[in-house]
Amino acid sequence: MFELLARFDKDTDPRKVNLAPGAYRDDNGLIWLLPSVKAATAAIISLPTYEHQYLGIQGHVPFLRQAARLILGDVAVEAGHIASLQTSGGTGACHTGAVFLKKFHDVAGDVDVFISDPSWENHHAVFQHAGLVTKSYRCYNAQTRSLDFAGMKADVEAARRGSIFVLHVCAHNPTGCDPTDEQWDELSRIFKRKGLHAFLDCAYQGFATGDLVRDK
Ligand SMILES: Cc1ncc(COP(=O)(O)O)c(C=O)c1O
């Protein structure tokens, strides 16, 4: 599939690259492995304790704890308010979250799930597959090539109580346009006031600013 995508990009127009799949490629369209990932893989494999033990259904608990600390901070983790589950990739995470919301939140079948326009191409399909109704919210101004914050805010304000908004935490796919800290604060106040739910899809932590901690 990756080869097909790479070929498709080159055939369409050699000056274009397809930025939608979240992977780095070299000039020949081949995957470029981050040196940090290569080094970590080598370090793990050379550990004397390295094995392929069958994991419990929750996943690898030490990994889950560290992931929660990275994304939500020590305070939230220590307070015991976090439930973590390992999934097969980001698609599996979105699917598991969507199924959970369908089962426990959309009991009456009247909840809207808002997805940014544009968004990662599978978002609508994943949420619809779980039985949820999806709609779009504005996030991009094609004229200014920047975040359409006014449009986004207006769509959030117009949503019914209990609606779910799928938000890209950082490095929005495919626009790369993220709200500022102040805009996130403003959005969170509207979410609280209106009783809306944020579904945070964090696919690219550290890829927006190059700093794992600074990225929102
Ligand atoms: C915003 C977003 N969410 C989820 C995914 C899916 O992640 P994975 O490829 O790990 O299934 C992607 C992948 O491109 C993505 O960009």
Give a structural overview.
With 216 residues, the protein is α/β, with parallel strands linked by helices. 40% of the residues lie in helices and 12% in strands. It contains eight helices and six strands. The strands form two sheets. Strands 2-1-5-6 form a four-stranded parallel beta sheet, with helices on both faces. Helix 5 packs across helix 6 (123-129) and helix 7 runs parallel beside helix 8 (181-194). Pyridoxal-5'-phosphate binds at residues 21-22, 89-91, 94, 120, 168, 173, 201, 203.
Short description:
With 216 residues, this protein is of the alpha/beta class. It has eight helices and six strands; from the N terminus they run αααααβαβββαβαβ.
Secondary structure topology:
Layout: H1 2-12, H2 35-45, H3 61-72, H4 74-78, H5 89-104, E1 112-117, H6 123-129, E2 133-138, E3 140-141, E4 146-147, H7 149-158, E5 164-168, H8 181-194, E6 197-201
Parallel strand pairs: 1-2, 1-5, 5-6
Antiparallel strand pairs: 3-4
What small molecules does the structure contain?
pyridoxal-5'-phosphate
**Strand residue content:** 5-15%
Along the chain, the helix and strand elements come as HHHHHEHEEEHEHE
Multimeric status of the protein: single chain
Count of beta strands: 6
Largest beta-sheet details: 4 strands, parallel
Total DSSP helices: 8
Give the N-to-C terminal Cα separation.
Answer: 31 Å
Low-confidence spans = 1-8
Feature tags:
6 strands, two-stranded antiparallel ribbon, 216 residues, 8 helices, binds pyridoxal-5'-phosphate, globular, alpha/beta, 12% strand
